[in-house]
Every structure is written in structure tokens, then in C-alpha cells.
Amino acid sequence: MTVLKDTRVTVVRAGDVVVKAHPEDTDEAALTARLRAAAELPGVLLPPLAVRAQRVAGRLVTLWPAGEPVDPSDPYAAPWEAAAVLLARLHDVPTGGLALPPAGGPARPARAVALLDGLDGAYAAPAGVIREAFHSLPPGATVTGPGAGRLTHGDWHLGQIVRYDGEWLLIDVDDLGAGTPAWDLARPAAWFATGFLSPDLWERFLAAYLGAGGSAVPHGDPWRELDVPARALTVQLAATAVAAAGAEGRPLDDVEQALVSSCGRIIRTAPQRGRVRPV
Q1: Residue range 160-175, pLDDT digits in tens
Q2: Can you say whether the dihedral through the CA atoms of 193, 199, 205, 208 is positive or negative?
Q3: Which of 24, 118, 138, 271 falls 20 to 30 Å from 47 in CA-CA distance?
Q4: What stretch(es) of the chain map to CATH 3.30.200.20?
Q5: Contact, 148 vs 179, CB < 8 A?
Q6: Where in the chain is CATH 3.90.1200.10?
Q7: Distance between CA atoms of 143 and 123, rounded to whole angstroms?
Q8: Which residues make Cβ contacts (< 8 Å) with residue 53, sequence separation at least 6?
Q9: What would the pLDDT profile of 226-263 be if each residue is shown by its tens digit?
Q10: Which strand ranges, in their side-by-side order, compose the sheet holding 68-69?
């Protein structure tokens, strides 16, 4: 048995089965709807082994087939094109018959910023920058409202796809729902804008998404739709990173400092509604 993750969720692999214990406050009806959606979309989402969660020690538990994750050590070998095509196909699914809740992506930055509460000492200044960047976002940008009619993942990054039975599939339905598809492109857009994702990898991903008919962004100016979500994801990533450093009692590393610096640029450009661009 191998523990794959142990944070708000606990993920354990036992042979060919992955067991996921969801947070204690998980809405059972919403999770059931998300499991059913995954089961109904073969070739896009990894189907669960059961479409209803079990309750174990007060937590909802789901069962999944084990797949092969992306190797995080070699970004150039990662399946950027396959991932982009999966997202394009997901975004093409109407949510009308799925009875899904709103996608969880827009609510995640606020939860991340809340992790900064109580940080002091060397962490107080970066926490303050991140909070100011969060409050500079347009009103309503991080409020989860009624779905926009398209199916969105809600928390997409390369760790959210696995190879199973010879094909790449999306995993993790915890934030799956009706929403704005641009939020699913926001994390790679944020990494590109802050300089952590190379321009050629970003172009590979974006070109494959648009080539597959992806509806999240227009061909001419993708940043028209990506600007606000990319800003919000930069804030989310910075808040999560600084909170982790504070919990571990260690100095911020270079990546964490760069994320805080990016939040500073978000603050400086907010009055002009300038776009997050590479530095």
C-alpha cells in the first residue's frame, strides 16, 4: 500500500485500486453527481469503480482504477497535447443532463488566501502582498455562481491526468461542475505568465486546445478570457506556497518568492486592468 497524498484529502494506492478519502465537509449529493458524470464520459474522465461513495470513519471514500501519472521531472515529455485535447472535449459537454453543482475553481483562491491567517514574522509581508493582490481582482471574480453551461474540471493541472488502458484520462472530480472553461487553462497560463512554463510548452498546449475545438478562449486574443483567471490562480499558488512555508517554519524558496513578486505585479497593474504577461 502506498500513500499518494495526505492533505485535506488522503489518497492511497493498493494494488490496482486507488482509494480516496474526501474532506469531512464534502457534500455527498454533489460528489455523487460528479461520480456519475465521470462514469458517463468514457474517454475523457477516468471512470470510478463505484458511482456512490462509501462513508468510512466519518469521511466519504471513493474507489478508482490505478493509472500511470505524468512524470513531473520532465515537462517537455509531458502529454501537453493530449491534456489539451481532453480539456477541449470536456468543455464541449453541456451540463444540462448531469445535475452538477457549479465548478469549484473560482472558490479555490479565497480558500488559499484564508490559509495565510495567523502568519507573522518573516511571512507577514509576503502574506500581505498576496492578500492585496487577491483584493485587487475584479468584484465577483472568485465567487462561485450559477454554472455557465459548460462542463469544467475546476482544478486542472498536469497532475490531474493519468494513462489508463493505453489512453490519457482526466482524474479528480472534486471540483467538476458547470462553469467558465477558461478557469481550466488558468494554472498553465499563470505558470507561463510568471515565467515558470516555457513559451514553447505554453504554445504547444494552447495550439492543441484550440486545434481540438476548445471553447474557453478565442483564437485571436486568448488573454481576453485568461487574464482574470490567471491572476486569481497566481494568487492561489502564492498563498498555498507561503502558507506551506509558514507551516514548515522555513524561508521562502526561489519559486515561492517569485510567486509573491508576481502578486506584486498584479497589484501594480490592477488599476489599468493590464494583463498578466511573462516577465
Answers
A1: 999 999 999 999 999 9
A2: positive
A3: 24
A4: 1-66
A5: yes
A6: 68-272
A7: 27
A8: 22, 28, 31, 32, 35, 60, 61, 62
A9: 999 999 999 999 999 999 999 999 999 999 999 999 99
A10: 68-69, 161-164, 167-170
3-class state of residue 102 by DSSP: strand
Q: Is the pLDDT of residue 143 over 70?
A: no
What CATH number does domain 1-66 carry, 3.40.640.10, 3.30.200.20, 3.30.9.10, 3.40.630.30?
A: 3.30.200.20
Q: What is the pLDDT of residues 48-91, one digit of tens each?
A: 999 999 999 999 999 999 999 999 889 999 999 999 999 999 99
pLDDT at 97: 78
Coil, strand or helix at 170: strand
pLDDT in tens, 111-131: 999 999 999 999 999 999 999
Please state, rounded to an integer, the average pLDDT across all residues of the chain. 92
What residues are paired with 56 via a beta bridge?
59
Contact between 31 and 60 (Cβ < 8 Å): yes
Contact 48, 63 (CB under 8 A): yes
Question: What pLDDT does residue 8 have?
Answer: 86
Is the domain defined by 68-272 classed in CATH 3.90.1200.10? yes
Q: How many CA atoms lie within 13 A of 182 on its CB side?
A: 20
Specify the length of the chain in residues. Answer: 279
3-state DSSP percent of the chain in helix, strand and coil, to 5: 45, 15, 40
Distance in angstroms (rounded) separating the CA atoms of residues 255 and 261: 10
Contact 178, 103 (CB under 8 A): yes
